[in-house]
Design brief:
The chain is α+β, with helices and mostly antiparallel strands and about 400 residues long. It has a single domain (about 1-395), classed as Penicillin V Acylase, Chain A (4-Layer Sandwich), CATH 3.60.60.10. It contains ten helices and 17 strands. It has helices at about 1-25, 40-55, 60-65, 75-90, 95-105, 205-215, 220-230, 290-305, 315-320, 390-395, and strands spanning about 30-40, 125-130, 140-145, 155-160, 165-170, 175, 180, 185-190, 235-240, 245-255, 260-265, 270-275, 330, 335-345, 350-355, 365, 375-380. The strands form two sheets. Strands 1, 4, 5, 6, 7, 8, 9, 10, 11 and 17 form a ten-stranded mixed β-sheet that branches. The model is unreliable at about 1-10 and about 20-25 (pLDDT under 50).
């Protein structure tokens, strides 16, 4: 078994190098983010997003209306089954997609979010720093998100009538990769065991995160929702709230009869998660635990321990801007390991700062949850470099 897993790891290295060589022969594409502010009903939010894409990003609109690469559209029956599942978990999600589809002029069952229940996972780092370790008494959550340049790059500030306002990055249009709502609930994720197929029925992480932001005020409510919904994902979810509670929910969905959710609490007022499981209860699921994930976990934890109890916003920004292997910032975009964004959630003040693109090359922006409706574009600087020792970088830990 171990030999097979290592062989798959080496195959992954070869594929990453092939992609890297192909990309380096092409002109480096621009990294452009947008901040989209939308409000009113879920249906109207969906229409506003489609209208924005239609006017400014027609290629992105076409992506959301196309079938999965190399596949046909899923059947209407399958789409409607998934719609009912998602609507039970995250009320309003289906209405938002309906508004998007109506504005785009396509049947909602053809929108890609219903087909894309599983996809290649991103690499992320996330950590929580409780007030006992900060010089200003604030509670901070830091996040670094690594992937290919060709990814969704939209920060959504969403104010749906009757639901808490939230701000976070989109995935599959109406889904979310991370975010904070008006109550100060923060949710982020990092993928785990991402080469393992998912088993059974249930929602992916991007539906779960949107549901948490729409429905929960604190970590307790988030845990109750995690235990209630049918979850089908391999991921670490970091959840924090304004009452200084934080936990990492480690989820595994290897087979319909082999699923587990473990809760990991902070130690010494610190909590870190990268792309592997840490809890003893999740040991049997900790496959495809690569060297780079261990290095990022260790470097972030060691940095936090070194600066505690005098951590503050500036030191966290410096940590997120520190290049790998001494920090989480990566520049290996052609290998799917380039930092697309870094985020600092000030949970105490319910504020968010974002560096669009690698933070060692780009400034930090304060994001206002009450910003006026509209669209803002941000162009980023980045360098695409090769991994010096890919065999070690992608080495699977025993």
């Amino acid at each position: 078994m171990l030999g097979c897993r290592r062989m798959l790891g080496y195959i992954f290295i070869l594929l990453a190098e092939r992609i890297e060589n192909m990309e380096n022969n092409e002109k480096k594409e621009p990294m452009i983010f947008d901040i989209l502010v939308a409000e009113r009903s879920n249906y109207e939010v969906g229409k506003q997003r489609a209208a924005t894409l239609k006017e400014y990003y027609p290629e992105d609109l076409n992506y959301f209306m196309s079938p999965m690469e190399g596949q046909d559209y899923i059947s209407a029956a399958t789409a409607h089954k998934r719609m009912m599942l998602i609507d039970n978990i995250c009320s309003g999600f289906v209405d938002e997609v309906q508004g998007f589809a109506d504005e785009a002029g396509i049947e909602p069952e053809k929108i890609i979010c219903y087909a894309n229940s599983y996809h290649n996972a991103p690499h992320c780092c996330q950590f929580g720093v409780l007030p006992v370790n900060t010089s200003d008494g604030h509670f901070y959550v830091g996040r670094s998100y690594e992937y290919f340049v060709r990814d969704e790059r939209s920060l959504c500030i969403t104010r749906v009538t009757g639901k808490p306002k939230h701000m976070g990055f989109s995935l599959q249009n109406a889904g979310r990769m991370d975010g904070m709502n008006e109550y100060g609930l923060v949710v982020s994720m990092s993928s785990t065991a991402y080469l393992k197929p998912l088993g059974g029925d249930g929602c992916e992480f991007w539906v779960a995160i949107r549901a948490l932001l729409d429905r929960c005020k604190d970590v307790y409510e988030a845990q109750c929702l995690f235990e209630e919904i049918p979850l089908c994902t391999n991921a670490n979810f970091l959840v924090a709230d304004a009452s200084n509670q934080v936990a990492v929910f480690e989820a595994a969905s290897f087979a319909s009869d082999k699923k587990r959710l473990s809760v990991r609490k902070p130690f010494g007022g610190l909590l870190v998660a990268t792309n592997h499981y840490v809890s003893h209860e999740m040991k049997e699921f900790d496959e495809y635990h690569f060297w780079h994930s261990e290095m990022r976990y260790s470097s972030v934890m060691n940095s936090l321990l070194r600066d505690a109890p005098d951590l503050d916003d500036e030191k966290i920004r410096n940590l997120l801007s520190t290049p790998y292997p001494n920090g989480p910032c990566c520049h290996y975009y052609s290998s799917g390991m380039g930092t697309l964004r870094s985020m600092i959630f000030d949970v105490t003040e319910k504020k968010l700062k974002v560096s669009f693109g690698p933070p060692d090359r780009n400034p930090w922006h304060e994001v206002d949850i009450d910003a006026p409706v509209g669209l803002q574009e941000i162009v980023c600087k980045y360098d695409d470099v090769k991994i010096e020792n890919p065999e070690q970088f992608w080495r699977e830990m025993d």
